[in-house]
Amino acid sequence: MLLKNKNAIIYGGGGAIGGAVAKAFAREGAKVFLAGRTIEKLEKVAKEITNTGGVAEIDKVDALDKEGVENYVRKLVRKAGSIDISFNAIAYSDIQGAPLTDMMCEHFTLPIINAMNSHFITATAAVRFMAKKGSGVILAITANAAHKPYPDIGGFGVACAAIESFCRQLAFEAGKDGVRVVCIRSAGSPDAPGVDEVFKLHAENAGITREEFETQFAERTMLKRLPKLAEIANAAALMASDQSSAITAAVINLTCGEIAD
What we know:
The protein has one domain: 3-Layer(aba) Sandwich (Rossmann fold). The chain contains 8 helices and 7 strands. The longest helix is centred in the middle third of the chain and has 29 residues, at 105-133. The chain is globular and about 55 Å long. The model has no long low-confidence stretch (mean pLDDT 96). With 261 residues, the protein is of the alpha/beta class.
């Protein structure tokens, strides 16, 4: 097992990406702590994990609440002994579907502010404890829009680029204490409900069907398809494991070749 005896926090653990990663972590032997604002969603993921023999606990936590997150992490360290992995997969309330010139400023800046606040709060809270024991992994997820522009995506791409820059800075500062920071960049998983909704929106703007939009998007990739949630989760488990012990300050390309690094 890649993550045997590891303790992992997943913020947004009730969401599609967070839930998929949590299940992959548990499958690989980690004890997962699911944090989020909607208990019902967290309970559903936790039940799926425990039904397959994994270990999962849930807590209602707002990743934008600095004091709440720090209290949560402190409580988990007292209870579990350590935090080995922290993964932030919350949504940023981005608004898409219109060009920047037609957007309100607050709609553009909202995902950027949410992304920076939540990543700063959750990552630094974990690193303080990881540094004391000399090891740990901070994980983040972004999208291809961090690397190249797309029409009518508002502040989403800028938020993703900011996350990647934050990860590099944190990796530089935390590396001396044995903490790694890795970001996963996806092209969007069509089996995630949120991505499906975004695809429908952009398909409508383009005057084509949702299926045609995905097909055209997939054709731009080298693999002629888009990454599934399970593939994102498997990559996250690998990056969090000691098998990736030399990887930090990296953006792992899971765009199926839509972007070439």
